Structures are given as C-alpha cells and as structure tokens.
Amino acid sequence: MRIRVARDAYIILYPGLVSGYDAVSLAIRLGDSIVIIDSGSGLPASNMQLINGLIEAGLDPRRVEWLINTHAHIHNVGGDRWIRDMLHAKIAAHIPDSRIIEEGDNIASGAEKIGLTLKPTPVTLHVEGDQELVVGDRPIQLLHTPGHTPGSMSIIVDLDQRLAVIGDALGSLSRKWGSNEDQWWNTLQQLKEIMPQILCTSVKCYAGEAAKEFLRRVEEEGPVWVD
C-alpha cells in the first residue's frame, strides 16, 4: 500500500485498511527526517501497518523524528506510545489535548467507549497557540484549530503543494469532548484563508477542486452535534 498525496508525503494508514478504528495517518519526508501525523488506533495490526507503510513508501522508519497529533481521540493517538517506544519519536500535541495523551485518559479520548485502551505517553512538545516547528530545515506550521476538541490542531506544510492535515477539526461536536461551535466556525474560516491545495481529514484526503468543494460543503452543512 503506497498512496502519495504530495511530494514526499504519503498516506500510510487509513480507516478500513486494517481496522475501522484507525484515522488517516501520513508520513512526510523533510530533509533527512520523517514526520508522522496521527498514529491510528494502537491495535497491533495498525501499529505494524505504520511501519510497513513507511517501508512501502521508501521511507526509513529509523528517520522518524516527530509524531504530531491533530487531536487526542483514540483513532488518532492510539499508536503514540508504540511509535515513541519503537522509533524513539518525539511527540507533539496541542494543549489541553496533550494532557489526555500523557495521562492515557480512556474517557476523554473515547477509547473506553469502543473497548480500546490509550497508553499514557509523554508529550515532548505541548503546543500553545500557533507555533512553527522546524524539521530537517523545513518549517511546519502548527495551527490551533479548536472546535471539535479544545486542543485540535492543523498541520500545514508547503511541499510541491500546500498540504493541510486537519484531523477532525471540522468534524462533529460533542459536549463530552468540550466542543465549541463558535470556535468551529472560526476554524473553518481560518482553513479557508489558508487555501490548501491538498486537505487531509481523519477519513480521507482531498486535492485541488475537491479540497475547495469539501470546505464549501462543510460550510453549507454547518457543525453537527452528536449529543
């Protein structure tokens, strides 16, 4: 399985590849370093696919320097501890979602609800506000895009095209997650202004006109509360 979404950017895990509990996970080569964005459910088969996906994309797992999380739901962060232990990757997440990862909070992460376990994982970089992270002499923009969760974050990197990885930033809302509808609308406007040529959610990636259409459709439908 090798899905290239931009120069040096590959999908290495996605929902249904090995488990329906996994979110989209991407690997990006930046110079001599590799960044993984989101780590899937943490199921053994999903963890192995992260490694296999790197290898199939021609990326050396030993070069993984950072694992960046879009937010702290189990589908996106379940494999954090495994990636940290196996590849010695540094972990980045936005506060307050970073606390959920560090504490292995099975309720706030949604793990308990679907019978999974989030293993406590030390977070190297607790992102506050908007920050820039330089990896392999290339800047990555870490943008605070709350609404879905208080610590939802979008990752923007300019390759041959502008890539935005937003996780569930424009996904559903729940009071259990601390969702905020006003913040959701602000996040939507912020992402529209960025005008990414490729946009990846937790479910799939959109390119070109499909990315614009996704944002248009989301704005038309508005936020969806699940409770």
Overall pLDDT score: 97
Q: Topology as H/E string?
A: EEEEHEHHEHEEEEEHEEH
Strand order of the largest sheet: 1-2-3-4-5-6-7
How large a portion of the residues is in β-strands, by DSSP E? Answer: 25-35%
Explain briefly what this protein structure is:
The protein has 227 residues and is α/β, with parallel strands linked by helices. The model has no long low-confidence stretch (mean pLDDT 97).
Structural overview:
- Helix content is 26%, strand content 28%.
- The protein is an alpha/beta fold.
- It has one domain (3-220): 4-Layer Sandwich (Metallo-beta-lactamase, Chain A).
- Strand 3 (25-30) and strand 4 (33-37) form a beta hairpin.
- Helix 5 (181-194) packs antiparallel against helix 6.
- The relative contact order is 0.15.
- The model has no long low-confidence stretch (mean pLDDT 97).
SSE order and pairing:
Layout lengths: L2 E4 L2 E5 L11 E6 L2 E5 L6 H13 L7 E5 L5 H4 L2 H8 L2 E5 L2 H7 L21 E3 L3 E5 L2 E7 L8 E6 L3 E6 L13 H14 L3 E4 L3 E3 L1 H13 L6
Helix pairs in contact: 5-6
Short key terms for the protein model shown above:
227 residues; Metallo-beta-lactamase, Chain A; alpha/beta; 6 helices; seven-stranded mixed beta sheet; 26% helix; globular; six-stranded mixed beta sheet
